[in-house]
From TrEMBL:
Keywords: Methyltransferase, Transferase. The keyword Transferase applies. Coiled coil: none annotated. The keyword Transferase applies. NCBIfam families: egtD_ergothio. It comes from the Bacteria. This is Dimethylhistidine N-methyltransferase. It comes from Falsihalocynthiibacter arcticus. The lineage of its organism: Bacteria, Pseudomonadati, Pseudomonadota, Alphaproteobacteria, Rhodobacterales. One of its GO terms (molecular function) is methyltransferase activity.
């Protein structure tokens, strides 16, 4: 087994904590190693996974309106930027920007994307920041006095509990000179549409979920037999969220950490929550965080929304 690096020491700690809890769980931020980031990009192209293309269409249709909320010589800071594919719609429109600050937890993926953006937007400063949006984002001091727009698309907010979502909204509200927040949120809708989006026919979402086990094998010396676990997605109506699990297909003990972890057949590891919102539920969370909802832009089928929050 390789010596743990600082990064996988954090994974080891989080994994042992989560897998020794009852019920078992893993933090969903661990999905996004290099393999997981690429699998997520594949998910965004699936027929069943409507959020990405729907949000992209909303952003495209409303780019000129969104531009009105973005001051001249300001910066656009994105949380969890991934491939920054949707951001290109904004970068094409927001020619007044001084800089784009993509932030992502996956350093190698982020730097790859930043290089490509520098090539495609030669007149724009691209300042990538390796950061985990569940903690305060370390914005470079040189931007302290610059007007800032936060961009958090993809309904990634939905991964957070209500309390953590309100904390995140509040932290961004306290950024020096923040002038707006463009926030993508997935909406409550027909349950079958939601279940299909998280359990696609090609099994890419299953691979994405199971990659957590491969990752623990690669990075912290765990020995999961990945074919002895299965992907499952459920709708939790009371909490208004999709929940993803890895289900143990047999009684088993998995070598990991000092003792190994026991699973009984049918036991689950809760790996993700993906909250779905209404205009009302989002407005309430925004108000509790010191924001007003200036725009709530949706598609014709009300699948997804892009909100513009202002101080
Ligand atoms: C990146 C959190 C928005 O919740 O839809 C996709 C992640 N998980 N399929 C989501 C995800 C399973 C995604 N977010």
């Amino acid at each position: 087994m390789d010596l743990p690096t600082i990064q996988n020491a954090a994974l080891l700690k989080s994994a042992l904590e989560g897998l020794n809890s009852t019920p078992k769980g893993l933090e969903s931020k661990w999905f996004y190693d290099n393999a997981g980031s690429h699998l997520f990009e594949e998910i965004t192209e699936l027929e069943e996974y409507y959020p990405t293309r729907t949000e992209l269409a909303i952003l495209t249709d409303n780019a000129a309106l969104l531009e009105k909320y973005v001051p001249a010589a300001s910066v656009l800071a994105e949380l969890g930027s991934g491939a920054s594919r949707k951001t290109r719609v904004l970068l094409d429109q927001f020619t007044q920007l001084a800089a784009y600050l993509p932030t992502d937890i996956s350093g190698p993926f982020l730097n790859q994307v930043a290089q490509q953006l520098r090539h495609d937007y030669p007149r724009l400063t691209i300042d990538p920041i390796v950061a985990d949006f569940t903690s305060p984002i370390p914005l470079p001091a040189k931007y302290a006095d610059t007007a800032k727009t936060a961009f958090f698309p993809g309904s990634t907010l939905g991964n957070l509990s209500r309390d953590d979502a309100i904390s995140l909204l509040s932290r961004i509200r306290k950024w020096n000179n923040v002038t707006g927040f463009i926030l993508g949120v997935d909406l409550v809708k027909d349950t079958q549409i939601l279940l299909d989006a998280y359990n696609d026919a090609q099994g890419i979402t299953a691979d994405f979920n199971l990659n957590l086990l491969h990752r623990m094998n690669r990075e912290i010396g765990a020995v999961f037999e990945v074919n002895k676990f299965a992907h499952e997605a459920r709708w939790n109506d009371a909490a208004s969220r999709i929940e993803m699990y890895l289900v143990s297909l047999t009684d088993q003990t998995v070598p990991i950490g000092p003792k190994g972890i026991k699973f009984s057949k049918g036991e689950t590891i809760h790996t993700e929550n993906s909250h779905k919102y209404t205009r009302e539920s989002l407005s309430e969370m925004a108000a509790l965080s010191g924001w007003g909802v200036s725009e709530f832009l949706t598609d014709a089928d009300n699948l997804f929304a892009v909100a513009v929050l202002t101080p």
